[in-house]
Every structure is written in C-alpha cells, then in structure tokens.
Amino acid sequence: MTDTTTGLTGTGGSDPSVPAVELVGITKRFGGIVACDQVDLTLHRGRIHGILGENGAGKSTLMKVLIGLVLPDVGSVRIDGWPRTIHDPLAAASLGIAMVHQHFSLVDQLSVWENVALGEEGRLKSAGVRDRVVAISQQYGLEIDPDARVGELTAGLRQRVEIIKCLRRDPHILVFDEPTSVLTPEESEQLFGTLREVVAAEGRAVVLVSHKLDEVLHATDEITIMRQGRVVDHRPTHEADARSLARAMVGREVSLRSERAAFGLAEVEEADGESQESDVGSLADIDEATDVDAEDRRPAETTKPDEPVMRIEGASVRGRGGARLLDDISLDLRAGEIVGVAGVEGNGQRTLGDLLSSLVPLDAGRVVVNHEAVPTGSPGAMAKAGVAVIPEDRHDSGVVLDMTVAENLLMVDPHRVARNGVMDKARTAETAQQMIEEFDIGCSGPDAPLWSLSGGNQQRVVLARELAAEPEVLVAAQPTRGLDVGAIEYMTDRLRQTAIDGVAVLLISSELEEILELADRIVVMSRGRIVGELSHAEANLETLGMLMGGSSG
Amino acid sequence: MLIDFFSAVGDVLSSESTYINGALFAALLAYAATGEWVAERSGTLNISVEGMLLSGAFAGILGYHISDLIVVGLVFGVIGGLLIAAVQAEMSHRLTADQFVVGLTLNILVFGLVGFLDREIEPQALRASTVEIPILVDIPLLGKALFGEPWPFYLLYALVPLSWWLVYRTRWGLELRAAGENPQSADVSGIDVNRRRRQSIYYAGFTSGLGGAYFLFARIAAFDDSVIGGQGFIAIAAVIFGGWTLWGTMAGCVLFAGALSFQLSLQGLGYELNTELLQALPYLVTLGAMAIFAKRVRPPAALARPFIRGLK
Amino acid sequence: MTRGARLTEWVALYALSVAVALALASVIVEATGGDWWPVVEALVDGSIMAPGRWGGTLGIAAPLLLVALGTVISSKAGLINIGQEGQLLIGAAVAVYFSFRIGGPGPLNVVVLLLFGALGGAAWASISGLLRYWRGVPEVLSTLLLVFVALQAVGYGLKWQWLLLADEASRGNRNLVSEQLAKDNRIPRPDIFGNEFPITVYVAVALALAVAYVLARTVWGFRLRMLGHNPRAAQRAGVSSTVYGASALAIGGAFAGLAGAAMFAGGGFSFGNYRLVPGFSDNIGWTGLLVALLARERALPAVVAAFVFAGLRNGAGFVNSTGVQSRITDVVQGLLVLALLVPPAVVFLRDRRRARAAATERV
User: Fold this and answer.
1) Any residues with CB less than 8 A from the CB of A285 and at least 6 apart, and which?
2) Which domains does chain A have, with CATH numbers?
C-alpha cells in the first residue's frame, strides 16, 4: 500500500500527489428519489479503491457519473486536479477513464481483436491491434487468441477480452463493476493479482465496485461504503473488518446467516471463531425471517423419504457447434429437501434451469417427475408436471414486462379465471389481488404494468405465481441476485418454508454462501458435468471452491 | 420440337447479346445490392431501395435534361437516391418510426411522384457512349459484356471492392457490423448505433441512386415509371441469397440477371418459356437457399430490429 | 403534465406535421403549374361529399381493414408479416378457381368463395410459417419474397384456361382475365342514401370488434400476446411458439385472402369488376399493412385509418378533372403517412428520455 508509486506509465507523468479523481458533492435525483446525495469520492493513483454497498445504494449511479452515462444535478468532477464535465462515455474515455462492464459489451459475432478495437478512434489497423492484444495479454497473464470468435469463448475468457479492451486504451482510471460473478475462485484470485499489478507497477487508479465483503477486504487499499445514496464510511482497508463493514453497509448489526451469506461473509465469520447462535438470538426482533430458524431445520437428516420426487437421469444437451452444455447429469430430488447446485456461472447451470423450464430439449437422458417421464423442450410440459421455476434472469423467461401484474400472475394457468376460453375480468382481478396480498407485492394494483415494479417485487410476482401452482418441485436459479437485503431475507425464508411444506427445492446459485446456508445436499457443476456431491456437513467454501475450479478433473 | 428448343437455348447461350443484356441487369442489381448489403449489415432491412433506384433513375434523366451532360445526370441520380435515403434514415433511425412503414410509404410516394413529374416535365436523354477496353473486349462471348459497356458501368468495378473494404477493413465498417449484430454492446462501447445505421442507409441511397441513373443511360435513355419494375426487391433477394456476404450477393445479382436475360433472349427467338417461373426465379431460388442454409447462414442478428437506447 | 396540456400538445403536433405535408404537396402541384385548392376540393368531393362517393370509399375501406386486422393478429404474436399483398392475391385467385368449379346457388357460392379466399391466403402465409418454424427462415424475409412469387403465380394462372383464364367466348378482346362472376353470386351491395357498398363493410367492422375482443379478453389472445412480448416466458408457460406463431401467420393470411375474395365478389368497378385481372391486388395488401402499422397494431384504430386511406384512394378519381394528374394523390398519401409518423415518434422519444432517467434509479 504505497501511496507514491513510481513508474506511472499510464498517467503521463502528472504529479502523483494530486488525486486522479475527485468527485465532490455529487447529487443526482431521479424523480423524487435521490440516487446520490452529496457524495464525495477521491481516487488515488496506485491504489485500489473498493466501493461497497447493497443494491440500490447508489454505487452504480456514482460510477455512471464517472464514465459519463449520467450527468449529476449538483457536484463537480476533478480529474488530475482539473475541473471537468463528463458528458458522455467518449468524453470519459478521452480523459482516461474506462470501465469493465458487469454486463458484457462484447459482440459475439466479431473476433477478439475486432472487439478490442470497437469504440476506439482513428484508423483501423488489424495487425497493430492484434499485436497489442497479444502484448497486453502476455504482460498481464491474460492469455487469449486475438482471432478467436468471441461468441465461442467461456465467460471467464470473455471477461479477459473486456479487460484487455479496457487496458488497450491505457486508462488512468479503471472501474470494475462486480467483476467476479462469472469467475471461479481461482480466476478471481488471478484477476486480483492482475489488478494489483496494474495498480502497483503502473500507477493507475482502480475502482472495484462490489457487494461482496471478503473480496473488497482482500483486494483493496481503501474502502468507501455507501448506503441509500450516501457515503456512510470511508477507511483504509487495513483498518476495516468484515463485521464493521457489514454494519455500515446495512445500517444495523448483521447477524442472520442469510444476510451474511448475501455478503459473502460465512467464511469470514467462521474464521473469526464467533458463535453464530448468540447472534441469532439477539436479533430475533428484526423480522419474520427468524420465524424459521435455519439452525433448527435439517429435514434431509430428520425426514428423509426414500422416493425421489424428481429424477434427472443421464441428461445431456449439446449447443451450437456440439458444445456440451449438459453432460450426462444425474440427480435425485426428494420431497422437503433443498439441493444446492454450486458452480461458477456459465458451467451449465443456465442450461439446467432452461431444461426444467421446458426451454431446452434433451439430446440424451430423461427427466422423471413422480414416476413419469416429462417430455423436454415441449412448451409448458415441466410446469404441467409440477416443476415450478424461479428463473436466473426473470426478464428472460420469468415475467412479461409489458403485461400487467395480474396477467403475469396468471401466465401459467389462465384457465383458472376463464370460462369457455374467455377470461373473467372480475375473477382475474380478485385472484390477482389475493396473491398480491399474500405475497405482499408492492404495486399500485393488479393492473399495474410489471415494469413499474421494483426488482424485488417483480421477483415476488414470479414466486407467487410459481408457488400458487402448488408444485412438486421448485427450481430457484440465482434467486437473490440483484435484490436488496430485505428482499434476500424474504426470498431465503420463503425457500426454506417451501421445503418444509414438502416441496423438493433445487437451488442453483453461484453464491457459495447462499448454498452453504440453505442446502441440505450440494452438487457442484463444472463444464456441464456434476463433478462432486457433498452433504451439508462435508461442505465448506474450500472444498466447494476446489471442486468448482475443476480440480477433481 | 424439343430439339429445336435445345438448339435455341444453344443459340441464346452462344450469343453475345445475352451476356450484354445480362451484364446490364446485373450491374443495376449490383449497384443496388451493394448498398442494400451495407444497410442490412448495419441492421436495416431497407425496402425503400426500390424507391431509391426509381428516384435515382428519374433524377438522372432530369439532370441530363437540364445540362445535356451524363455526368450531371449521374450526380443528380446520386442526389435522388440520397433524398430518399435521408427520409428513410432520419425517420426510422432518428425519429424511431417503423422502418417498414417508412420504406413502403417511400416506395409508393416515389412511384407517384416521379410518374407525376415525368408527365409534367417529360425529360429526354441519350444513351451513354460505350467505352471498349482494348484486348479484354475481345474475349469471346463475355468480352463485350464486361469490357465494352457504357462508361458508367465501370464505376461498379471500383464501387464493389470499395464497399467490401469499407465494411471489413475500416473502423466505420467494424462499427456498423457491430451495430447490426449487437446494438446494445456497440452502444456500451461508445458507438452511436443509429448514426451508423443512418449512414449505411445513406450509402445505400448513394449506390442505388447511382445505379438507377446508370441503368437509364445504359439502357433506354427514356423514362417511364416501370423502368425499375421491382429490380430493387430482386436486389434485396440477392443480398439474402448471398447470405449477407458481398461476394455471395454479387453472385446472386449475376445469377438473377442471367436468368432474366436468358429469358428475354429466348423470347426474342420466338420461344415462349414459362416467363412467370423465370420472373419468380430470383425469389424462389432465394427462398430455397434460405430454407436449406438457414441454420448455418444467419442474417445480422439485429436485422430489422430498431435500436432505442435503454430499451432492451 | 396535465391531461389537457398533453392533449393540446398532441393536437398541435399532428396539426403541424399534417400542415407541413400538405404544404409540400401543394408546392409540388403549384410548381408544375397546377392549382392546389381544386385538388383538395376534388379529393374531398371524390371521397365523401359527392353523391354516391362515400359508399365507394367504404367499399375500398373494407378490404383495407380486413388486411389490417390480419396484420394486427400476426404482429401481436411478435411476427413481422409484410406479405399481405401476395396473400391477398392468392386468396382472390383460389376463391375464383373454386367459385367457378363448385358453383351452386348464389348465397352459398358467396360463402364458398369467401371461405376459399381465406383458405388460400392462409395457405400462402403458412409457407412462411413452415419456413420459419421448420427451417428458421425469418418470416419478414419470406413473406416479402413470396409477394413476388404470388404475383407471378397468379399471372401464370391467368394464362391457362384450366386454371383461371376465362374461355374465349367470355374473354371478349381481353387476354388474361378470369370469368366474370355471375350476378346472383356476388356479394350484395344494398343502396343506402344513394350510396352503394358491399355488405362486407359490416363484416369487416364486426371482425374488427371481434379481433379486439379476442385479443384483449380470451385465453387465446392472452397467450398470443404473451408470445409476442416474451417468447421464452410464453414457452415456459405452455405457449407453443410453433403452434401459436404459425396460427397467427395463417390467420393473418386468411384475413388478407378474405379481403381478396371480397374484393373479387363485391368490389364492383373499384376492383376488376368481378373478374380477376393482372394487378388485381392493386396495392391493397401493402396499404392494408400501412393501415395496421399506423394504427400501431390495434384493431379499432385500424377502422379509422382504413377509412382515411380509402378516402384518399377513392378521391383520387376526381382529381384528374382538375387538370392535375390523379397520381398526385399517391404523393399526398405518402406525405401524409410520413407526417402521421412524426408526432408519436417525437412524444415517444421525449417520454423515453424521461422514463430512462426514472429507470436508472431502479438499477
């Protein structure tokens, strides 16, 4: 953590004591809501600055101000001590600010070098770009073939392309937005190694936006914590610990397991050697989440019915060009148990979710629900067989944004409010209203368009609809992604309750802590295969991490 | 009877005029299809190409009418094409109006307008003079068709490679391909997607306007509103037939123009072939090619899908 | 913004852009030595004011509306069908073919004819459906290309007596015409206040109401809309994109084919005078598509749009008498369509900008 690093190749030799970026008093309102409220942020060269906060804390808006996607209402931006106005991303780029996007900015049909060249200016020289790609990839250990088609790369490699694309512009200021969600622990480790190199050797300023405490603690030099649009704390990383950071982030003591899971704290807490029971006891008043105490419930061990509700037998799916998306997967689910599917994103989890949503047919194998084989890829077949799904990306297959809340609630089974094929208006409204109340969905009424709801409430719409079908199996894919703390608690609690009610729950998640927290039994996926199975007792972050990285094969 | 027919086919295939006619139509198609190809690579199914051709043809003869110069006619043709392109581009990719509404309307509008103006003004023109390229023109059968054409024909020899180079070798081309494949990503990368799309439509207007004027000076030197007669749509078919590659597109142009010329020549010899089948051939062949190769050859992923920032 | 202010804004925007379009048209007329005002009068007279004219306008509006309704249905399923012109023509041709072969008493033959028209259009559109769902060919391309195949196919049929061509005796001195439909096999055109129009007008309006109802209220319509908005969510919920999508295309084609048959059997002098002739479809398919798109793919606004387009077309007949060529109406129509596109686009862009600002906060 040296403040005055030398060898500023990226900064053109400006005075290192002047902060690379100063954001002063940034305020941004959207309608009545204040996304950023007088936020100050100072970035120094040669340092990695972590910005920590829940979803909706204002991190994204702040970064958008920095890269020119949002103009602040109030506040000033200084770059290298000079006041600047950043109107658009191109202006940001010309000031040496670059962002590695959470949602990839790559074009699948183009090659790696073409993607890297995309968005630059000046003449296009393919040989020059290729050479630079190779040079950068060697310099930072981000090996990649410049002529490979991006669409054929894995998620981890695609992120490399993003980073190379960013570094090629030789930015002084690099912003990473939740970079590790698509990486194995090993790849994350390598990424942070690269970051450290970029920072220390070349004096660039790096921002790491994250909601994972351990990652921020591990990789940064200083930390800014945001909550509800304000900066609530700022300190050097060596003075920070997980507990205080979590407290600052949420605004109260964080002790429930689910919350810790959401912040990636499970390991950290255990390492601290603190007892968990004491925390749970002291926080029983927070909300109903505590009604179902995680520690009391291990149904797989207490009530283990022998007959599986759902069997997946030798399931294989091939993608375009013969890639094995699912490779001979077999899995049993029993009533009342929660089975976790762990793994780095992009290792077949999405295909597994799609399979159980009737979106993909099997090339080999079968899916059996209650002793009957369910046709795969056939519209609605899984839903009919009693398989409910909370999809990984609710906008992809979970909801229809342009339809009303009521219509979304009745999507799977409109016949229950219909007579002779005509939907009864009164019954539609009534049924929807009941579900809205039961699941406490925040909306202006059954006729509100779905896009007007917050992410958490959209997720509740999905949950309400899927549970209303009284399923045998509930598949929950990344069910807490993008939700804030309250919504995460609600969701994990509901999942537990669903299992207690006798439904077999398949929890597909890349958040290991979430899986460790909820699952009775854990399988690990890597490259479309199941590479290991662990009981709750056997599993910990380390064993899972090793399996996920493919160290078994 | 059948033997007579085959000998007639032989006559047609060995007659220079079949190839000369073929080259004439192929050039018209190639002018239009080149621009259309660029537009489609950026994500626009530009059905106003028919209107651009017609507008170019009429503006071309108007230019000649005023100046007695073919060069001026060609410049006017380009302007005529660009005018239509301007409306298409600005309405569909600035104002976000539906590209098909704009395209269809423009086709009807241009058809009505040039018909109207033609009868009001009654412009006249002359055929462009033929320029023969020595030695090459003496190649049997094909020589005259490829190297003994009215001079505007030769612009094509520069235009097609230039278009290829623009799309595959320049930053502009890279950006417009990105806009046609994944506009969201292109946008995040700092590319003004709709600007690139507008520019690609202007490019289509440029080549089609030029093509329309060329056709007029190369062939009939008189205008009537059926002079283009659906060749713009055949150009669209050629782009699709070519699987959105430039060389495939050119192959489509040659094939379709060849079929047309073949049929006309046979008719000239008094043989009545199934004209309708031959006229429908470009479309049938294209549909067949798509049906066979659709799983392997894909259109630009965002073809005919408007891009509005913030709207997925 | 208050409701009133918003309404004022809309009216002002529309008034402005229509005024600009008309001004442009008038400049064209005046510049070529014509007079603008008589053209306007002729258009109004020819479409509604003069005796018997609004009946003719309604007669043209009916097929436009039918085509538009089919387009509304296929677009609700998220499909871009731009091949109505061909579907209409094939529908008319199939209707003609079977009408003369099956014969039968008048009213029955009308029903048979309309039925086969719809079937013909549906079959033609189903080629695109087949290509789309079996081979993955985008329907926007196949429907477009099939228009030109249809034109040639019907042209071919009109050359052969065993297909569509009339026998020599009834051909007169014309080539390439079908038999004329017998008087008692035609769709009735009752006379109302001196205006006569086919009863298909009522059918078309009734169908518009039916389409609006089916889409909004039935389970089928609900699932079709679901498919159009989010095909993956629909598939998961049990909506087969193949079944629903192909049906929507076929129904769209059926409406176009029905329009073609109705034009043949009840269109009178506006459309071939009860004969199938080359160019019979006469851009009704294309214009019907425009009607649907301008009505933003909604059934009831399509009724109004169809009437406006029909009025322009019918009014064109009176323009020639002013000394200005009637083709100016194509220009007026084109400019008007373009003008009508501007206000919604302007408002949309502004609202989108606001919505984006509001949406960013939810990130």
Assistant:
1) none
2) 19-96+174-186+201-250 (3.40.50.300), 252-386+472-553 (3.40.50.300), 398-470 (no CATH)
Using the beta-carbon criterion (under 8 Å), do A379 and C235 form an inter-chain contact? yes
Question: CA-nearest residue of chain A to B167?
Answer: A124
Query: So where are chain C's domains?
Result: 59-313
CATH architecture, domain defined by B2-127+154-293: Orthogonal Bundle (1.10)
Give me the average pLDDT of each 10-residue run along chain A (553 residues): 38 64 87 80 90 79 84 88 82 86 79 89 86 86 87 80 84 85 74 80 85 82 88 89 79 56 48 39 37 44 67 89 84 93 83 93 93 92 93 87 93 89 92 93 89 83 92 92 75 91 92 86 89 86 74 42
> Can you tell me whether residue A273 is helix, strand or coil?
coil
CB atoms C238 and A384 under 8 Å: yes
Determine the Cα–Cα distance for residues B58 and C31; give it in Å rounded to an integer.
17
Q: Distance, in angstroms, between B174 CA and closest chain A CA?
A: 7
Question: What is the CATH code for C59-313?
Answer: 1.10.3470
Chain A CB contacts of B185 below 8 Å: 104-107
**Of the candidates A369, A470, A377, which has an alpha carbon nearest to the alpha carbon of residue A416?**
A470
The answer to whether the Cβ–Cβ distance between C236 and A60 falls below 8 Å is: no
C348 Cβ contact list (under 8 Å, min separation 6): B96
Two tokens, residue B17: 């005029």
Q: Is B191's CB within 8 Å of A395's CB?
A: no
Pairing of strands A364-369, A21-30: unpaired
CA distance A132 to A167: 10
CA distance to partner chain A, nearest, from residue B239 (Å): 19
* Contact status, residue B30 vs residue B156, Cβ threshold 8 Å: yes
Nearest to B9 by CA among B259, B268, B262: B262
Query: Could you tell me the sign of the dihedral formed by the alpha carbons of B147, B153, B154, B158, in that order?
Result: negative
The DSSP bridge partners found for residue A176 are A100, A208
Do the chains contact at B174 and A106, CB–CB below 8 Å?
no
Contact pairs from chain A to chain B, CB under 8 Å: 54
| Token duo for residue B25 | 């139509």
Predicted local distance difference test score (pLDDT) of residue A264: 53
B7 CA: distance to closest CA in chain C (Å): 25
Strands A205-210 and A173-177: parallel
* In contact, B46 and B201? CB cutoff 8 Å: yes
Q: Which chains touch B (3 or more CB pairs under 8 A)?
A: A, C
Are the beta carbons of C312 and C336 closer than 8 angstroms? yes
- Which positions in chain A touch C212 (Cβ < 8 Å)? none
Distance from CA of C281 to the nearest CA of B (A): 15
Chain A CB contacts of C358 under 8 Å are: 30-31
| C-alpha–C-alpha distance, residues C81 and C84, integer Å | 7
Closest in A89, A108, A123 to B190, CB measured: A89
**Which position has the higher pLDDT, A431 or B308?**
A431
Q: Are A376 and A356 in contact (CB under 8 A)?
A: no
β-pairing, A33-43 vs A21-30, is antiparallel
Q: How far is residue A351's CA from residue C237's CA, in Å, rounded to a whole number?
A: 17
Q: Which residues of A touch B311 (CB under 8 A)?
A: none
**Out of B171, B182, B190, whose CB is closest to A107?**
B182
Chain C partners (3+ C-beta pairs within 8 A): A, B
Q: What is the pLDDT of residues C342-359, one digit of tens each?
A: 888 888 888 777 765 554
